Amino acid sequence: MRRLVLLLAVLLLASGCARTTVGGSPVAQAPLDIESPFEQKESTDPSESEDPETAPIDGEVQGVCAKLKWTDLPYPGAKAETPPTQINYDSTFDQSCRWTTKVDNFEVGVSLRYREGREITIERTTGDWDVKGHKVTYLDRSDEEGVEPSCVLVVPYEGGGLGIIIIDSSGKFGTVCDQGRKVAEVMIDRETS
Questions:
Q1: Is residue 57 very low, low, confident or very high in pLDDT (cuts 50, 70, 90)?
Q2: Quick one: pLDDT band at residue 42, thresholds 50, 70, 90?
Q3: Residue 84, helix vs strand vs coil
Q4: Which of 107, 110, 126, 188 is 20 to 30 Å from the Cα of 137, by its Cα?
Q5: Residue spans of alpha helices (H) in the chain
């Protein structure tokens, strides 16, 4: 968690105070959320102990990650067929992907993590919504000191669990949790099981 706060503080400082208009486009960058805010179960399987920072970041977009497109997100400048910025970066989940871009010198983005066979939980929550018959639990971190405005959401999904993280300091696309709810709605609409 300390690494997350430190990285977010560095990104915030690096973004500077100047606000100039920059056209949004997908950019390769360091992860916005290095340390997962989702609860982790202890495992004795060595294949599950790999550090997410060194996990593979390539491969073919498939499964849950293929269901979300850039045009589903409120950020400007990308076409639907543009792949996520990064995939398969968190080996503690069966699937992981993120879409990140710069808007007005702020990094904004969405990340998905999917685990087969069991739900994902978060340690503390702000509340929950019923979204199309699915319970979406969320943690709003937009007012926490030392943390970039973000929202963490979890939902039972395709026999497992889906985690969604929204990070947005720009303030241009609505509240971070409203953005997360819209992503959850898109993913639930495209659920196959």
A1: low
A2: very low
A3: coil
A4: 107
A5: 2-15, 176-189
